[in-house]
Specification:
The protein is built from twelve helices and 35 strands. It has about 650 residues and is α+β, with helices and mostly antiparallel strands. It folds into three domains: about 220 residues, no CATH class; about 130 residues, Methylamine Dehydrogenase, Chain H, CATH 2.130.10.120; about 260 residues, 3-Layer(aba) Sandwich (Rossmann fold). The strands form eight sheets. It has an eight-stranded mixed beta sheet, with helices on both faces. The protein has a four-stranded antiparallel beta sheet with strand order 1-2-3-4. Strands 5-6-7-8 form a four-stranded antiparallel beta sheet, with no helix packed on it. A hairpin with a 6-residue loop joins strand 25 and strand 26. The longest helix has 18 residues. The N terminus is likely disordered.
């Protein structure tokens, strides 16, 4: 109950903050600790708050009574269990999806169960679990119809998931109809909970297409709309309902590289382009009180919003909050049934995340809780967008984080390639790891190298079969840019990355043996031949093999040439490797291959390279293991490019 007492206290005192330290150096634990508050949602009547509380990687759902300022419950679901989705079903009941994660970088996790419970934490009912279902997730908690919720589920014997209106009391289901074809998913619903779109996937072309129909004609046949025209990796997805009758929004890149916004008239079939950014993909939609789309988020350098309905009351509220809280990204989490009370999140590069309650009855804003209240924005580092040209003329974008209070000149530099690599990208945002490194005096450079997601299909495909070559050159060119700008001391540069970033780290040491003084590979891929046979991508049957064929190829000589484990004799820099013994994404086979290569090259463990392993998955969850890793990593950096290296 301690967290709940704190939560209640926060509502009186604005937010939880630890004592500020007099020293410029912020304690390591302040960066290692996970965000205490992950999400906050208000009940339909505005009388209660439910929030996700994180304790060392495991989630609790905490509820307080706003009228009495009294904690009502704090319910945990087990070690490494996280609340993937949750919402108020009515003023007194919550619906929750629970996932189990096996590593800190395992973002999706494996579905475990769905629960229905009252605000006091009593009468907790398990609706679905891994014993009776292959998976289930919440689509709509239906606060306006508290006896029901809309969920997607599949029982243990079902081949395909199904969308159902589920009776929370009796367990009976009402289906929304069958999928349109064998490759189609469950129907997507419009603002009135009517099935209007069914998305499908072509495994041969790795493209998506869809079926649609009018919401007032449930028995009509689906109409097929395949915008890919046989082209590969064309994305077409459903964004939501328009404010216009019989019209929905789609996100698609069928006619250009980047994903743009289109409207589809379900009655006439007319498709109309609304907006496209030539540099980056349009991402998530923003909804109004009627669950109609009023805008779209995108992330060129800083977060932006394109408004399709700029005069909608929620759009006006968003714009007012952006002006009131400059330098922060605004996300409205939910609202009361009457729309008069809103819970929103404000975050940014120096703002880990603050949750607020906006009361439109009196136009007052109150801070509820902070994700990491112990970190002070004035002590943190600014993150600046950068743009440069690669050696072949391709435009690259990324972010530079500079140590607070230091002149951006001749600094020790840590180059930090992201994981993935295809799909993920780096954003302008708060990053505790980057902030830790900046606080210790290092400039941190992140680049969205070719192959990264978010910059259009052409940019992503430009990285296919270019692992360790042009993709690596982009990392090198960004490093050289920092030297040319005078930001980085050319004699004090290291690489550090996790997963694919671990690959790029070691491959960078292979390709540029005289540029980098050291490298930290964290749960990384080091042998591309082994990647084709060891790890959960390789075990995904046809889909996994097709993906690997597309992005790294299957030519044995090419794979060998681009594997740092097979070319470790070229490495001059000091190496620090950290891995998880239970990692299923990148198993220990990768670490073993890298160590084998280092030993074969004549390098000595403890002198030329260091190895850390823990009983963990894809990234360290356990606080002690995280402390051990970051303590060792900081010591390693200090000895190679920090004060001790000078």
């Amino acid at each position: 109950m301690k967290k709940l007492v704190l939560l209640a206290a926060l509502l009186f005192t604005a937010h939880l903050q630890a004592k500020t330290t007099d020293s410029h150096t912020i304690p390591l634990q302040d960066f290692i600790k996970t965000a205490e508050f992950v999400s906050v949602k208000i009940s339909p009547d505005g009388d209660k708050l439910a929030g996700i509380v994180d304790e060392n990687g495991s989630h609790k759902i905490a509820v307080i009574d706003l009228k009495k300022m009294k904690p009502l419950s704090a319910i945990a679901f087990g070690e490494n269990r996280k609340i993937a989705t949750y919402g108020w079903n009515d003023n007194n009941h919550l619906l929750l999806d629970i996932n189990k994660t096996v590593g800190f970088l395992d973002r999706k996790g494996k579905w475990e169960a769905m629960f229905y419970m009252d605000a006091k934490g009593k009468n907790k009912k398990e609706l679905f679990n891994r014993g009776n279902s292959n998976g289930a997730y919440i689509v709509d908690t239906l606060p306006e119809d508290p006896r029901h919720a809309i969920v997607v589920t599949s029982n243990s014997g079902a081949n395909l998931p199904r969308l159902v209106k589920y009776n929370l009391r009796t367990g009976t289901e009402r289906k929304f109809g069958k999928p349109a074809d064998q490759y189609a998913g469950v129907p997507r619903l419009d603002k009135n909970k009517k099935a209007v779109v069914s998305l499908a996937y072509n495994p041969k072309t790795a493209s998506s297409y869809l079926y649609y129909k009018l919401p007032d004609a449930p028995n009509t046949e689906w109409k097929k709309l395949d915008l890919s025209q046989g082209k590969s990796e064309v994305t077409t997805t459903f964004a939501g309902s328009s404010t216009q009758p019989d019209t929905v929004y789609l996100l698609s890149n069928h006619d250009a590289s980047t994903i743009g916004v289109f409207s589809l008239n379900l009655r006439t079939g007319e498709l109309k382009k609304i907006y496209r950014n030539p540099r980056v993909d349009v991402e998530q939609p923003i909804f109004n009180l009627n669950k109609e789309v009023i805008g779209f988020r995108l992330n060129p350098d800083y977060p932006q919003v394109f408004w399709v309905e700029p005069k909608d009351p929620i759009a006006v509220t968003y714009q007012g909050l952006m002006q009131a809280l400059p330098g922060r990204n605004i996300v409205i989490y939910n609202h009361t049934n009457d729309g008069k009370k809103l819970v929103f999140l404000a975050n940014g590069d120096k703002y880990p995340g603050d949750f607020y309650l906006l009361n439109l009855h009196n136009n007052k804003v109150a801070k509820l809780v902070s994700a990491r209240g112990w970190l002070k924005p004035e002590q943190l580092a600014e993150v600046k967008p950068i743009t440069l040209k690669a050696r072949d003329g391709l435009e690259l974008h990324g972010y530079l984080t500079l140590p607070p209070g230091k002149e951006p000149k001749n600094l020790p530099l840590l180059v930090n390639p992201h994981g993935g690599p295809h799909g993920p990208r780096d954003y302008w945002q708060f990053n505790p790891e980057t902030q830790l490194l900046a606080n210790r005096g290092y400039a941190v450079l992140q680049v969205n190298f070719r192959g990264s997601g978010g910059y259009g299909r052409d940019f992503q495909q430009a990285g296919y079969r270019k692992w360790g070559r042009e993709m690596q050159d982009d990392v090198t060119d960004t490093t050289l840019w920092a030297v040319e700008q005078g930001i980085a001391d050319k004699n004090r540069i290291c690489l550090y990355g996790g997963s694919y970033g671990g690959y790029a780290t070691l491959q960078g040491l292979v390709r540029e043996p005289d540029l980098y003084k050291c490298g930290i590979g964290y749960v990384g891929v080091y042998d591309l031949e082994t990647l084709r046979s060891c790890g959960d991508i390789a075990t995904r049957g046809h889909y996994g093999k097709a993906f690997l064929n597309r992005v790294i190829g299957k030519d044995a000589d090419e794979l060998k040439a681009n594997s740092p484990a097979k070319n470790a004799d070229r490495i001059k820099a000091k190496v620090f490797l950290a891995h998880g013994e239970d990692d299923v994404r990148v198993p220990m086979c990768q670490l073993k291959q890298m160590v084998k290569g280092l030993k074969k090259s004549g390098k000595v463990e403890g002198k030329d390279y260091f190895v850390m392993t823990r009983d963990e998955g894809h990234g360290y969850h356990n606080p002690k293991n995280r402390t051990d890793f970051y303590s060792a990593a900081l010591k390693f950096l200090d000895e190679n490019i920090g004060d001790k290296a000078q």
